[in-house]
Design goal:
Elements lengths: L3 E7 L3 H12 L5 E4 L15 E2 L6 H14 L2 H5 L12 E5 L2 H16 L4 E4 L1 H7 L10 E5 L3 E2 L2 H14 L3 E3 L4 E7 L2 E7 L2 E10 L5 H6 L8 E12 L7 E4 L4 E5 L4 E6 L14 H14 L8 E11 L6 E4 L6 E5 L5 H17 L14 H4 L10
Parallel strand pairs: 1-2, 1-11, 2-8, 4-13, 11-18
Antiparallel strand pairs: 3-7, 4-6, 5-6, 9-10, 10-11, 12-15, 12-16, 13-14, 14-15, 17-18
Helix pairs in contact: 1-6, 1-9, 2-9
The structure holds flavin-adenine dinucleotide.
């Protein structure tokens, strides 16, 4: 295996694989992607894979919209022969407080400016969209039919397969353990299988990205937070859309095979790399979900798991080049919504590395914003 590449990508999740694919598409094919375990072994293989355009900031709504446009034909886009499992059954976002309901109206205005086909729904409409839902205490909701979910394993593989076809090399079960620099520039990486050289290194290691960035003196204010999810036995189809509440911090969807996939937000947990499932989550999740959707009381849980959110202070990504190691880029901080934005983020990164124009200014994602106060605020986040 050769030791020198134009670009090295660290991390084989959907962000690393989408970036590799987009680089190759732009003619940068001398790329090595290094993954410490297997592709999708991190958050990408543990996520709900929900895709929604119903955001409250123009930035996120736009990134999600442009990403959805790619998810809609990802197989053709990447030349992948398998199905990526996109199901656009819609997202039903429900409001339990007046404040939230008011915010939803503002969010709709932002979405409509971009042409996103979302709309407000009253209680009878909510019951029609989701028969059996408990609407007690609900003010109303919003719905967008084009939101949905996909198969995170197939989507990541689609990008990886497409990238490999164009010449990108993948090195799995190999950990990046150090970074090589010279004269203020990145020159390569140290790994458990020796050193590899590159003038550009893209750090897509999610919750481990800050540790790597620290090696070249960068303080990336992103922390690792455990989030758990579970899946039930298969049931007859009753729920076509994803149901989500920000205030009660839950989401649930029915998978194509009939299982319900769900999760609730983390409460009172210290930052950690804990991958263990807990009884507390099982109990709390089932209580919240059975209250929201009482028909779930009949379901049996078959599996639960834990993964990590890479949380940034404003719940939006940090994309930055290291000051002391030019050519070393960190791309992390997706704060629980990195799957749905990966297509557009891959394009943004690849355009930057290829020196191509992009309609989005990558500088706004710099961690400098935490010093200047120019935060990327988002009102519609779980
Ligand atoms: C329970 C749960 C539910 C979620 N639901 C959703 C959802 O519905 N919609 C949504 O959009 N997002 C969701 N997310 C978030 C989403 O999963 C992530 O934002 C996204 O997958 C991040 O992709 P990534 O490629 O940055 O990270 P990852 O998939 O974690 O990939 C990073 C990779 O880097 C590797 N790595 C780390 N350190 C090194 C090293 N030193 N050397 C080599 N390799 C290394 C890891 O092994 C890992 O495979 C959810 C996450 C969780 C945990």
């Amino acid at each position: 295996m050769k030791k020198g590449y134009d670009v090295i990508i660290i991390g084989g999740g959907i962000i690393g694989c989408a970036t590799a694919f987009e680089l190759a598409k732009r003619g940068i094919t001398d790329v090595l992607l290094i993954e410490k375990r297997f592709l999708t072994s991190g958050a990408s293989g543990r996520c709900g894979a929900g895709i929604r355009q119903q955001w409250g900031s123009e930035l996120n709504a736009r990134i999600a919209l442009e990403s959805t446009n790619i998810f809609e034909h990802l197989e053709e886009y990447t030349g992948y022969s398998r199905n990526c499992g996109l199901h656009q059954g819609g997202y039903l976002l429900v409001a339990y407080t007046e404040k939230e309901w008011d915010q939803f109206q503002k969010n709709l205005e932002v979405q409509h400016k971009l042409g996103i086909d979302s709309y407000a729904v009253d209680i009878p409409q909510i019951k029609e969209i989701c028969p059996g839902i408990n609407t007690e205490g609900m003010y109303g909701g919003t719905f967008c039919q084009k939101d949905g979910h996909a198969d995170p394993f197939q989507c990541t593989q689609a990008y990886a397969t497409g990238a490999a076809r164009m010449g990108v090399k993948f090195l799995t079960y190999t950990e990046v353990t150090g970074l090589l620099t010279e004269g203020g520039k990145i020159t390569g990486v140290e790994t458990t299988r020796g050193n590899f050289e590159a003038k550009t290194v893209i750090n897509c290691a999610n919750v481990h990205a800050p540790e790597l960035a620290k090696m070249v003196g960068e303080d990336v204010p992103v922390i690792s937070e455990r989030h758990q999810a579970l899946i039930t036995e298969k049931y007859a189809p009753v729920l076509d859309c994803m149901v989500m509440s920000f205030v009660k911090s839950y989401y649930v969807q029915q998978e194509p095979n009939g299982s319900f996939l769900m999760g609730i937000g983390t409460k009172n947990e210290d930052p950690s790399f804990n991958f263990k499932s807990s009884w507390q989550f099982l109990e709390e999740n089932c209580a919240v979900m059975c209250d929201a959707l009482p028909f779930l009381r009949k379901t049996k849980v078959i599996r639960q798991w834990a993964g990590q959110y890479d949380m940034s202070p404003d719940c939006n990504p940090v994309i930055d080049e290291a000051a002391e190691a030019k050519g070393f880029w960190t791309v992390c901080g997706f704060s629980g919504h990195g799957f749905m934005v990966a297509p557009r983020i891959g394009i943004l990164m690849a355009n930057k590395i290829a020196g191509m124009d992009d309609s989005m200014d990558i500088a706004m994602f710099s961690k400098e914003r935490f010093k200047t106060g120019k935060l990327l605020l988002e009102p519609a986040v779980v």
